[in-house]
Amino acid sequence: MKSNYLESTPNKDGYFGRFGGSFIPPMLEKPFADIEKAYEQLKKSPEFIDELKYVRKHYQGRPTPISFAKNLTKYCGGAKIYLKREDLNHTGAHKLNHCMAEVILAKHLGKTKVIAETGAGQHGVALATAAAYFGLECEIHMGEVDIAKEHPNVIRMKILGAKIIPATHGLKTLKEAVDSAFESYVSQTEDAIYCIGSVVGPHPFPMMVRDFQSIIGFEAKEQFKELEDSNPNHVVACVGGGSNAMGIFAGFIDDVDVNLIGVEPMGIGENLGEHAASLTYGEEGIMHGFNSIMLKDENGEPAPVYSIGSGIDYPSVGPEHAHLKDIGRTKVGLCDDNEAVDAFYKLSQLEGIIPALESAHAIGFAMKLAKTLAADKTILVNLSGRGDKDIDFVVEKYPIPNAKF
């Protein structure tokens, strides 16, 4: 499917408006230039496209369906809530959409190893899966806090053959995992490729990951028209780095009648260190090789962040999200920890779907939004992952509620 916006954005230097670009040390300039060149060649290659189509259909299980959340809709009252079921993608989240493609790219470049960071563990699991499928080594960097919190995914990565490197500095979460992975990659550029896990990082990764994830939006647009004979009124997705959100937004980016809403984690409060709402409270700044909107401390450095969702507690956001908000194409919603946990349990007990805590933020916002809209309006939520990884943590911290709502 063609999109005027996607074909023209970013520019040749990797800028989405004033956001994006590549701010990297000299020793990384050639490896990233090689990645960009290889991607520009591969995305026009019929062989690459055919291989990716085959993998998506016969291995990942695409297309993933759209489900009408009839019981949740009835409970909320108001607009109809639909779910794009990326939790049914192989490995349980949207991450495999770009990981399989990135590992094909690595093989094209003659690399024997892939390196990445992970927060909630879903990107790590997906990359370990892709590495196993294509026969490459896999090294995953993960914050010590997240290793303890997301234990099921850590075990899955190890079973898949990945080597787990703990990030032990700072807050020991996602930002520190990125720091650690970049540091490791610098000494291994000849043999390895850094497979960034979201629409963040230096060019070409924000563009490349968006393009690989756009399959979500293109599928959803066709599927939704089959169900409702129209576009959804609102498309909602959680945003940390923002790969799942850009994936589903891509299918509707040229349809100005569709309201695109990225939901940020409000955590437990408005003070620095209590949330990870970069677009809401941040300012322009450079981190991890790209210019975007980020949360800063009093010294102008990346601020400490927090969210119950380990995959979205990041102090910046993909540069395209910063741009789309800047030009008024997207809006920002907020969901705090308690609302996310409530959505986690509501979706589980009303629909039989246990969502990832990250995805529960989008569900929680959609529940609030639905109550403000008429019954003939529609909301499409990107259910970006399943909650198997979160169940032990959630039930330990938040008692299971009575199912009689």
Write the topology of this structure.
Blueprint: H1 4-8, E1 15-16, E2 19-20, H2 26-42, H3 46-60, E3 66-68, H4 70-76, E4 80-85, H5 96-108, E5 113-118, H6 122-134, E6 137-143, H7 144-149, H8 151-159, E7 163-167, H9 174-186, E8 192-194, H10 205-213, H11 215-228, E9 234-238, H12 243-249, E10 259-267, H13 278-281, E11 283-287, E12 290-294, H14 319-326, E13 330-336, H15 337-351, H16 357-370, E14 378-383, H17 391-397
Parallel strand pairs: 4-14, 5-6, 5-8, 6-7, 9-10, 9-14, 10-13
Antiparallel strand pairs: 1-2, 3-4, 11-12
Biggest sheet character: 6 strands, mixed
Total helical segments: 17
Overall SS class? alpha/beta
Distance between the termini: 42 Å
Unreliable stretches (pLDDT < 50, length at least 5) are: none
The strand line-up of the biggest sheet is: 3-4-14-9-10-13
Q: Could you please say which CATH topology of the largest domain applies here? A: Rossmann fold
| Broad shape | globular
Mean pLDDT: 96
How many domains comprise the coordinates? 2
Beta-strand percent range = 15-25%
User: What's the helical proportion of residues?
Assistant: 40-55%
> What is the radius of gyration?
19 Å
Q: Architecture of the largest domain, according to CATH?
A: 3-Layer(aba) Sandwich
| Number of DSSP E strands | 14
The first-level CATH class of the largest domain is given as: Alpha Beta
